[in-house]
Design brief:
alpha/beta, about 40% helix, 5-stranded parallel β-sheet, Rossmann fold, about 270 residues, two-stranded antiparallel ribbon
């Protein structure tokens, strides 16, 4: 298990690696990928998930379903670092013959599902969770979605389903970065107080600073002890975390950075 200091250092390392990937392949959603770095680090370096890099489909693994696939490119350097695939693949991203693209899919070792369309990950996870429950498996299911996905009706169908069936092996993490593609979520459709909405459907709810990697880890550790209800962690994050040009721009979701802006961000990260 990594300690708090090393988790922070690893988060910084992954944020820098994500920016370097962007230098080589500027087609992916950088801001969306930067907001989830600490969440991914807590899951994979904080002794939360059971996984096997040598056998990504190990039957005993926990399942991690990324619904916001476009915003998970920061997962690539984590998978390479942990040995799911050779680190040399990172240098080939988006090149002919590479399985690493701007939108990930199940060709990539460590990705459970196709993640192209938003709003479907939680429904898929519910199916996986109920199947594992009926098999009497102790494997857990973790899902990462964006706050913008909460506008999708299918997500709320899944929330109701999970609460009704008491899927205690299901753990949802909401990347609550408060921005959708075309601006601030509160101006599009304000979902606050979002915790109360989940509680109505029989979910256990916790809210933390999503960039406090230790707080995220502790919350997820607590979730693993609960098996009577589905759980949701509202992780308050900043879209484009670590890059001022993105953090301050309401249109950061679709903003492209120039080479000099990326280099400046890399130099100033600490």
């Amino acid at each position: 298990m990594e300690n708090s200091k090393s988790l922070k250092e690893k988060s910084l390392e992954i944020r820098k690696a994500t920016l370097n990937l962007y230098r080589a392949s500027a087609g992916f959603r950088l801001a969306s990928s930067l907001s989830v770095v600490e969440i991914l680090v807590a899951l994979y370096y904080g002794d939360i998930l059971k996984f096997n890099p040598k056998d990504p489909r190990d039957e005993n693994r926990d399942r991690f379903i990324i619904s916001k696939g476009h915003g998970s490119i920061s997962f690539y350097p984590i998978l390479a670092d942990l040995g799911f695939f050779d680190k040399a693949e990172l240098d080939r991203m988006s090149q002919p013959g590479s399985f690493l693209a701007d939108i990930p899919d199940t060709r990539i070792p460590g990705y459970e599902t196709i993640n192209g369309a938003l709003g479907h990950g939680l429904g898929v996870a519910c199916g996986v969770a109920i199947a594992l429950k009926r098999k009497e498996s102790d494997a857990k299911v973790f899902v990462l979605i964006s706050d913008g996905e909460l506008y999708e009706g299918a997500v709320w169908e899944a929330i109701m389903f999970a609460g009704h069936h008491k899927l205690g092996n299901l753990n949802l993490i909401v990347d609550n970065n408060k921005r959708a593609m075309m601006g601030d979520c509160k101006e599009i459709l304000d979902l606050e107080p979002v915790e109360e909405k989940f509680k109505v459907f029989n979910w256990r709810v916790k809210r933390v600073d999503g960039h406090d990697v230790e707080a995220v880890k502790i919350a997820l550790e607590e979730f693993k002890k609960e098996d009577q209800k589905p759980k949701v962690l509202i992780a308050d994050t900043i879209k484009g975390k670590g890059v001022p040009q993105l953090e301050l721009d309401p249109m950061s979701h679709i903003k492209n950075l120039k080479e000099e802006e990326v280099l400046s961000a890399l130099q100033n990260l600490c």
